[in-house]
Amino acid sequence: MTPGTIYEAIGGLETIDKLVTAFYKRVAKHPLLIPIFPEDLTETARKQSLFLTQFFGGPRLYSEERGHPMMRRRHLPFEITPSRRDAWLECMAEALTEAQIEEPYLTAIFEKLTMTANHMMNTPEP
């Protein structure tokens, strides 16, 4: 762990795992998100855990396993509309609360994820 990182401040991998579990529990039930996610979310959640670990300043697990994140490119096959972005962020906001991530990290994390979610949008609303 790099000292002074969000990853370290929120409790490392244990907290990332709580966050990812809480998030995908919601994704699996969200009518706007179900169509763009696989039925079995196990591998998707594992990759998300690797990514968030790295994204928040922890070990570069995602890059070591999968190369450069290139998140927009990896998401291009999926229709990510503004409403799906909002649904994704809603699920993440609830997951951050469930994982008991406190301020100032809650706001910092949500801001970083909001910027990323905005960047992932690739399809206008129908």
What topology does this entry show?
Layout: H1 6-10, H2 13-27, H3 42-55, H4 61-66, H5 71-75, H6 82-98, H7 105-120
InterPro entries: GlbO/GLB3-like (IPR044203), Globin-like_sf (IPR009050), Globin/Proto (IPR012292), Globin_bac-like_CS (IPR019795), Hemoglobin_trunc (IPR001486)
Organism: Ornithinibacillus bavariensis
Cofactor: heme
Task: Kindly describe this structure.
By secondary structure, this protein is mostly helical. The chain has a single domain, classed as Orthogonal Bundle (Globin-like), CATH 1.10.490. The protein is 62% helix and 0% strand. It has seven helices and no strands. Helix 6 runs antiparallel to helix 7. The termini are far apart.
Determine the number of helices (DSSP H or I, runs of at least 4 residues).
7
What value does the average pLDDT take? 96
Based on secondary structure, the structural category is mainly alpha
Low-confidence stretches: none
CATH superfamily: Globins
Look up the CATH topology.
Globin-like
State the end-to-end CA separation.
43 Å
What's the CATH first level? Mainly Alpha
What is the CATH architecture annotation? Orthogonal Bundle
Helix content: 55-70%
Strand portion: under 5%
Order of helices and strands: HHHHHHH
Number of strands: 0
Shape: globular
Gyration radius, in Å? 14 Å
Main sheet summary: none
The tally of structural domains comes to: 1
Organism: Ornithinibacillus bavariensis
Cofactor: heme
InterPro entries: GlbO/GLB3-like, Globin-like_sf, Globin/Proto, Globin_bac-like_CS, Hemoglobin_trunc
GO molecular function: heme binding; metal ion binding; oxygen binding; oxygen carrier activity
